[in-house]
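Same chain as my last thread, 122 residues:
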Amino acid sequence: QVQLVESGGGLVQPGGSLRLSCAASRRISNILSMGWYRQAPGKQRELVATVASGGATNYVEFVRGRFTISRDASNDTVYLQMNSLKPEDTAVYYCNAVASPPWGSSRRYDYWGQGTQVTVSS
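reply #2:
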């Protein structure tokens, strides 16, 4: 079964930077978009950023200007460059991929990673 695997989390001081990476355990066909979500303790999972296969990006307002999402040339690996980190950015960050069937169905498939912990603390 396809799984997404995140890496790059850790402990960083406020104002510091981290770069998260996410790749599928095996190839996923027809990826439409990939993105990052996060879930802080006691809070619901929330969208952070997405990037479509064509390169268009979207960011939640709270991270715009600080975080940058990108994909490699194969479009099956996604990164999240996080700068100017704040304590409120502390959360488990989850990678997401949305894919369509190769036969052109309107059905969509969501894939999720297990998450990587990001802790911003002095």
